[in-house]
Specification:
Keywords: Acyltransferase, Transferase. This protein is of the alpha+beta class and 417 residues long. It is built from 11 helices and 21 strands. Bound molecules: acetyl coenzyme *A.
Length: 417
């Protein structure tokens, strides 16, 4: 592990330093400036008391920060987590241990705040494994041709579709979204201010698309919101005629029939030929609703990386799908307080869990990174064992733990941060 260069030091950011600090981060990410609207939102959302700066002498050369999020985990609990963000080091100061020094200070701070988990999305996945982050969720993007697939319409409530201004509709959409958060591991409860991100739609970032639109699916009798989709259209044409592209930003619904109705709408907009969506869960119902699944051109990418900052607290705070009683021998090169043997037991769904130090013999051996990868139920421990990353010491322990850690609902993070 790199130890940092003696001229480098890490300290908290002062609020009045935000502009200079943010510019250092922009330079670290390649120099492009954020759209003014986007920049102002990041300023408002920065939790300055969680921001760190790394200096060469007294000159800032990098930084990082964290958001105080709450994240759904298997079993339906919504837990405090540190959402690690804005990590960057100037190109003149790389590979001298600046990031390592930032991560050291940040993980110690997260522990001090009593958050058992840290999570992040990575600019490049190879960066964070050394700090104990495991690849915990994936996202599915896809492209669909209009007119080549029908969307099965399951039985369910009738809805009336209505176009609305995305900002005016936001409070109702957010209320619906809040109800969905505990149902899918990896989803984040919205903190005040974060709702603006979904409808920010900075004109400079539209890339030829229309302003964002919002279609509401409402109960025809009472007008109650049952689902919504936000999308934009980029007009285009080819020799055969109009060939616009629909960019789907969000689709959420409280009932499968409403979800199907919204997709049927998105897949049948006049003057368009293609529908794209950047991120959906890997178990998205649409895959089962379309008449021709081969027409879905998928693109799967890494999503959230998870780090157990306090192994025992993190494992006690999530639910387990089946009973388990296993001794985990955990290695942790960056947070040594986690290393050792932990006895994890639970009577299964709804029963709570206990995780305590033990002298008993190990049943499974694994690194904290693999616990992070399996934590939300996205990767199974059995799959990680087949990759040689989890070692089964007691026969049967792997199947027992793998079943208990699994989630029926694929974990997913709908948006970056
Ligand atoms: C959550 C987020 O915000 S993700 C955004 C991350 N930021 C970026 O991608 C912006 C562009 N990149 C950067 O600013 C920097 O290169 C950083 C932050 C990724 C790395 O900063 P550095 O100060 O150079 O890292 P540091 O010197 O501490 O390196 C620690 C180790 O990680 C390795 N490492 C660092 N960056 C990378 C990378 N991009 N890919 C693979 N390995 C890396 C180093 O080689 C080093 O390995 P070693 O311990 O075996 O010697």
């Amino acid at each position: 592990m790199t130890s940092h260069h003696p001229d480098l030091s890490v300290r908290p950011l002062a609020a009045e330093e935000w502009d200079g600090w943010f510019r250092v981060l922009e330079l670290a990410f390649g120099g492009s400036e954020e759209e003014p609207q986007q920049r102002e939102l990041w300023r408002e959302l920065t939790e300055v008391d969680r921001a760190l700066v790394v200096c060469d002498g007294d000159r800032p050369v990098g930084g990082c920060s964290a958001y105080s999020f709450r994240m759904a985990v298997p079993g339906g609990a919504v837990l405090p987590v540190a959402g690690v963000t804005m990590v960057g080091v100037l190109p003149t100061h790389r590979r001298r241990g600046a990031l390592t020094a930032l991560m050291r200070r940040q993980l110690d701070d997260v522990r001090g705040r009593g958050e058992a988990l840290a999570v992040l999305t990575a600019s490049e996945p190879p960066i964070y494994g050394r700090f104990g982050y495991g690849h915990a969720t994936s996202r599915l993007g896809f492209t669909l041709p209009r007119g080549r697939v029908a969307v099965h319409q399951p039985a369910g409530p009738e809805v009336r579709l209505r176009l609305a201004d995305p900002r005016e509709a936001l409070p109702a959409c957010e209320e619906l979204y809040a109800g969905l958060v505990p149902l899918r591991p990896g989803m984040l409860e919205r903190r005040p201010g974060w709702e603006a991100l979904a409808v920010l739609d900075a004109p400079g970032g539209r890339g030829g698309h229309s302003p964002q639109m919002c279609v509401l699916a409402e109960d025809p009798a009472g007008g109650r919101l049952l689902g919504y989709a936000r999308y934009a259209i980029r007009p285009d044409s080819d020799d055969a005629g109009p060939a616009g592209v629909v960019r789907v930003d969000d689709v959420e619904a409280t009932h499968p029939a409403v979800y199907a109705r919204l997709w049927a709408y998105l897949l049948d907009l006049d003057l368009t030929s293609t529908v794209t969506v950047r991120t959906r869960p890997v178990d998205d119902p649409l895959v089962h609703l379309v008449s021709d699944p081969r027409r879905i051109v998928p693109k799967q990418r890494d999503g959230l990386f998870v780090r157990l900052v306090e192994v025992a607290a993190a494992l006690e705070q999530r639910g387990y799908a089946t009973p388990l009683d296993v001794v985990l021998e955990v290695t942790d090169g960056f947070c040594p307080w986690n290393a050792g043997r932990w006895r994890l037991s639970s009577a299964g769904p709804g029963a709570g869990a206990s995780c305590v130090w033990t002298d008993s013999a190990a049943d499974l051996r694994l690194d904290v990174r693999e616990l992070g990868a399996a934590y939300l139920g996205g990767s199974t421990l059995a799959a990680l064992a087949r990759a040689g990353l989890v070692e089964e010491v007691r026969e049967g322990a792997l199947a027992e733990a793998s079943r208990a850690f699994a989630s029926d609902v694929a974990p997913w993070l709908p948006h970056g941060f």
